[in-house]
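User: Predict the complex with C2E.
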Amino acid sequence: QIRHGLGNRLHFFTAGMDTRARRWIEVESELRHALARGELQLYYQPIVCVRDGRVRTVEALLRWNSPALGWVSPAEFIPVAEESELIVAIGDWALETACRQVRHWQDTGLPAVRVAVNVSAHQLAGGRLPERVREVLERTGIDPGQLELELTESAMMSDSEHGARQVEAISRMGVSVALDDFGTGYSSLAYLSRFALTKLKIDRSFVDGLSRDPKSSIIVDATLGLARGLGLRVVAEGVETEEQRALLAAAGCDALQGYLFSPPVAPAALGALIDRFAPAERYAKPRVVAIG
Ligand code: C2E
Ligand code: MG
Ligand code: MG
Ligand code: MG
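Assistant: Here is the predicted structure with C2E placed in the model:
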């Protein structure tokens, strides 16, 4: 039996312990120090406008290269971060880092982009999110229109009155709010009117089913109808094939995101990506390059 200390808690690894439970504890124990040790990074994935093919928004996505565990996928460590509430500190860091990055791109002559930052239910429940957003906007000096927050339905579920007030306050600052992974949560349509949303992101499970499962395209069409009626823009995520791109564009999606266009990339690679999607726009403007 191995005794393993985690902060002020003790965990016992026994021979019979499920390997999944062991892995969870290992991930949690490493994640506790990941932020302080500078192991977390943000990558950025372009969201492409259907109308003109330009990239106006990029989504910030966490990447973790742990010296002990190697690359760990967000699909694995985000749930651990949520359960341990490490997500509050990590989410705070992500918000600040993404806004600083946008400021840096702008200072080095890239066309202005908006960054979409994922926000967890815990950050919304904490009640300090509007204040944090205001502080970060002030510190980085970016325009509120250059920031978007992505919330999931689960974030809206827990204490939705309180959550709705936070979102309202954030949206009044001029920051846009998107509902992420639409269709995978409880999908109570009440959230769509109760929350001050600007955008819906159709989950990639529906995009994935488009060519095979007629039900997926019915859901996509219905979502677009609903969004249009409510004045919301629609982004489809997980677009991997030309066929999906054509179907989603014809159905009326405003913007598309997925490996077909680009995977999430390191910040230094974004300039080249923007060039690829809108060369004219970048070079039409005087280019200011930071010196020193
Ligand atoms: P999400 O917010 O729905 O982000 C989209 C996910 O789909 C990303 O996975 C992205 O890399 C992946 N993706 C994009 N295009 C394609 C495609 O064409 N095909 C496929 N199969 N996948 C595609 P990733 O980066 O692994 O992140 C997973 C989830 O982790 C995110 O889902 C989000 O819920 C969460 N996450 C990531 N960063 C943060 C963060 O800073 N804060 C919080 N709270 N959650 C985060
Ligand atoms: Mg997202
Ligand atoms: Mg999503
Ligand atoms: Mg998703």
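Residues 1-8, 282-289 have pLDDT under 50 and may be disordered.
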